[in-house]
Amino acid sequence: MSSSSEFDDIIDKDVYKYYADGEWKVSASGKFVPIINPSTRQLQYKVQACTQEEVNKALESAKAAQKLWAKVPLWKRAEALHKAAALLKQYKDPIAQCLVKEVAKPAKDAVTEVVRSGDLISYCAEEGVRILSEGKFLVSDSFPGNERNKLCLASKIPLGVVLAIPPFNYPVNLAVSKIAPALIAGNSVVLKPPTQGAVSGLHMVHCFHLAGFPKGLISCITGKGSEIGDFLTMHPGVNCISFTGGDTGIAISKKAGMVPLQMELGGKDACIVLEDADLELVAANIIKGGFSYSGQRCTAIKVVLVMESVADALVEKVVAKVNKLKVGAPEDDCDITAVVSESSAKFIEGLVMDAKEKGATFCQEYKREGNLIWPLLLDHVRPDMRIAWEEPFGPVLPVIRINSVEEGIHHCNASNFALQGCVFTKDINKAMMISDAMETGTVQINSAPARGPDHFPFQGLRDSGIGSQGITNSINMMTKVKTTVINLPSPSYTMG
Ligand code: NAP
């Protein structure tokens, strides 16, 4: 149950309602989707299993509401977003408690996620006011054969209904990173929250409800992605899909219709460590980058590629820090908490056992209790091991020893994933040349990969995504250009 009475409306007995047409509703399906607490592995929450008919209705009202919203002055849209941001921050604690219970996010990080989301919404409102107020004015006589008799006015208009599908690991932040740009640009939004994270998502949506957005402009349809996902993504009423998640995104991009797609998918971010690197700095970044939220971050460091000559020294430093990580309950703000599900824990274990059979060195004893996996550094990993290439999404990190920088770059570029990467060296020239050679969306120099600050461009190449995100790019992506051409009389026309 929610701990704040402000949220009483969103629950019916013990099942959370879904949100459509400005109201909290019980699904006609009579069915619910269980949400299992990753730490206790007990039933934590129940959400409505929405029907296809309910999806149709939400999309119809989203379409109608969008037409009116697009006419609301930009400054008023921004004002409403600022209000939602303030409410989100006001209710950071009850929302963070849901994150702790349904995705096992450490308590402090859960609060940080909600506050960051409020900041993202406000920044988006301000950025939208600036960039959407600008258009372009062109005259025709620059193109060969033309006279100066055509004047073109170009401006940005909304796409229509944006379908937003975030993943479990940042169910609030990665929802608002889609909702806020969509709304400021004059679109409406249908949100399909991840099942693990749905209750946090519903609480977040309630802040938009309390902020007084028009009925139908935002809706939140709950249900398993495997059951209603295809119906939503292939629906003719959807004009844009903004998705963050794993391989599901690749499948969606093959099935979706002719609508703009924003895809933020998996990563296998490499950390390349050169001989001259500050190993203390590298070790600290490997801990933060590889083990925060138990490695369940798209931009987590997922493979360390270290020059053989400094590998022993680096591994020793990292091992000392890994051994100090606090393992336990998210409520106690532990560094390492349960991974999101049993299937995820089993998948991670599969990667670890494959590496063991093929001769990797375990720097700690492998230990797992239920969904809780103790942090593990695997040294002497070789390219024939699955963990060299696959995304564990857990607190296990492979180290591959390399004999040349080219070997590291080659490994990085041979991956299907290409989200971010990082390089540690004191030589800025080398860093820039390596950055240039790494075929990833972003390269961080002397720091672990990370998303943000949220207005920075953020993108994955190859199987890591389509398009570029970040506040400014998302606003632009959720608009299209509309032009009006003023045709003046021919130049021979006399004005006198
Ligand atoms: P996921 O399994 O792909 O799920 C993502 C979302 O898709 C969930 O809301 C899920 O709903 C929904 N879904 C499932 N099947 C669907 C279908 N057929 N049609 C439409 N939607 C469907 O990913 P996850 O396990 O939640 O998240 C982890 C992955 O996300 C990792 O690979 C990580 O790297 C990636 N990620 C990427 C970024 C980035 O910015 N590049 C950021 C964060 C995470 P249900 O929960 O109901 O199944």
Task: Explain this structure.
- It is built from 14 helices and 28 strands.
- With 496 residues, the chain is α/β, with parallel strands linked by helices.
- The chain has two domains: 5-265, Aldehyde Dehydrogenase, Chain A, domain 1, CATH 3.40.605.10; 269-445, Aldehyde Dehydrogenase, Chain A, domain 2, CATH 3.40.309.10.
- The radius of gyration is 24 Å and the shape is globular.
- Helix content is 38%, strand content 23%.
- NADP nicotinamide-adenine-dinucleotide phosphate is lined by residues 165, 167-169, 174, 192, 194-195, 224-226, 229-230, 233, 244-246, 248, 252, 264-267, 298, 391, 393, 419, 460, 465.
Please specify the SSE layout and strand pairing.
Elements: E1 11-12, E2 15-16, E3 18-20, E4 23-25, E5 32-36, E6 43-48, H1 52-69, H2 74-90, H3 92-103, H4 107-132, E7 136-139, E8 150-158, E9 161-165, H5 173-184, E10 188-191, H6 198-210, E11 218-220, H7 225-233, E12 240-244, H8 248-255, E13 261-264, E14 269-273, H9 279-291, E15 301-307, H10 308-322, H11 342-357, E16 361-362, E17 368-369, E18 372-373, E19 376-379, E20 396-402, H12 405-414, E21 417-418, E22 420-424, H13 428-437, E23 442-445, E24 458-459, E25 461-462, E26 465-466, E27 468-469, H14 471-477, E28 479-487
Parallel strand pairs: 2-6, 9-10, 9-12, 10-11, 12-13, 14-15, 14-22, 15-20, 19-20, 22-23
Antiparallel strand pairs: 1-2, 3-4, 5-6, 7-8, 8-28, 13-26, 16-19, 17-18, 21-25, 24-27
Helix pairs in contact: 2-4, 2-6, 3-4, 3-6, 4-5, 4-14, 5-14, 9-10
Bound molecules: NADP nicotinamide-adenine-dinucleotide phosphate.
